[in-house]
Design a protein that fits this description.
This is MADF domain-containing protein. By secondary structure, this protein is mostly helical. The chain has one domain. The protein has 4 helices and no strands. α1 packs antiparallel against α2. The termini are far apart.
């Protein structure tokens, strides 16, 4: 089911309120009870029919995948363009909210599985 962009933005903003579910360096990241409580809060706040923890986790996974694709488009356009007018600019309203959350953690841990649609570290030799 396709979501309205306003719903997706709301989800990303709620997601950002709980670093225990997205920041691997957060002290509560490994606390399953706190993570589950955060998921339940988000589900209640979204108040969507047939939207439970598994659907939320899948939606987050899809959003992170899309975020990483958009980030790669930006990076590729920065490398290949000579002028600033040619740099790719994401049109997704939620992209910049997600970028605020994830830029510090993804840029420091850019060695993730290609199957997840994420990028490989430029720092690795």
């Amino acid at each position: 089911m396709k979501w309205a962009e306003s719903e997706t933005l709301k989800l990303v903003e709620l997601y950002g309120e709980f670093p225990c579910i997205w920041d691997i360096s957060h002290r509560d990241y490994k606390d399953k009870n706190k993570r589950n409580a955060a998921y339940e809060y988000i589900i209640r706040a979204m108040s969507k029919e047939n939207f439970g923890v598994s659907e939320l986790k899948q939606k987050i996974k899809n959003l992170r995948y899309t975020y990483n694709q958009e980030r790669m488009k930006i990076k590729k356009s920065q490398k290949s363009s000579s002028g600033s007018n040619e740099v790719y600019v994401p049109s997704l309203k939620w992209y910049y909210v997600m970028d605020t959350l994830l830029k510090s953690i993804t840029r420091s841990t850019e060695t993730q599985d290609n199957f997840e649609g994420t990028i490989q570290s430029e720092v690795r030799t």
